[in-house]
Amino acid sequence: MLQAFSILKSSVVSFRRSTESCVFYLHYRGTFLLLMFACLLISTRQFAGDKIQCLASHYADVSESLLNAYCWAASTYSVSSAYFKEAGIEVPHPGVGGSEDFSEYTYRNYYQYVHLVLFFQSLLFYFPHLIWKSTDHDYLNLFYDTLKGCKAENSKEGKTIESPLDEASSFIADRWGTHLGYGLLYIACEVMSTVNLMMQSYLLDIFLNGEFLGLGYYYISHYNAERLKDPIRLFPIVTNCYFKKFGASGFVDTIDALCVLPINALNVKIFLFIWVWFSLLMGLSFCSLLHFFLAWFFPWYRVSYLKLKTIIFPSQVDHEFYSRAAVSGNFGDWFVLSCIKSEIDSLEFSRLMEGLWNKLSNLGPETKEP
User: For this UniProt entry, which segments traverse the membrane (predicted)?
Assistant: First the structure.
């Protein structure tokens, strides 16, 4: 079992790319690991432990292994009216009983496919990252290579540190105004991640018969109830199963078995955690998209966070030139500058922005073609 979880080690130690926000990282890394971990956990429990154990009357002439295999493959069912009867007196377990109204019968066989659903969901959460990674034209890598290359050459020639930063600022100034498509492409990937989260929540709701979206509210509202403690309707531990066979007289005999699903004790905890995680991630995703859209439409917003941070945490680093450059450029220019800002030293970035602003000021009213 430990060997199965060791394959996630390489994914845990990977780092976030400089062009990706923390929320985007949570989509393709945090959620991917969560769903993959749940998939492996359920798979090892399902294939290494007892998937189902069914109990039939001692008069039933059928083997236990045959009954277990049939009820697992076919389906088990619960009776809705049996949830409101006294367990141990009127019914043996919540949801276990009989009824003449067949509309009260709820058949469930989703537990056979939970590990597959979680596996494919984890791949879909990783898909937007693959798109961004494949379409990212390594602009920042070219910038960093230019900066490092200039530093290496100047260190051999004994020049000052200003020359590499001057060369790097020229690299940005020559491409100023051409980054809008680069920034919009990243926003498209963030939107894709958010839409994927909404779609996966909806598909899980369909998979679980319309009970996933309200799972957390249902659990909280019934937590203190004796008969509905835990969402046992969705994840029943004890269920019924019908098995039909020919009897000794040649007529069809019906065996009503009582089945225990140990896997549902794990399913209920996994899906409750997924519901909480999806809810938190949904809120963070909308906040992240709002942040980028505000930065797109309102240039003053791009430096508002930095100004607020400077007021709370006074710093000797001058961000005046960065503020001017971020406001004067388009959204793509600000996006590139914010990515660079998170990767290099604050003092070097301040000097880089000073050189960039001087070059942009010398350009005059001319603008670059996007």
Answer: 21-43, 110-127, 202-220, 270-298
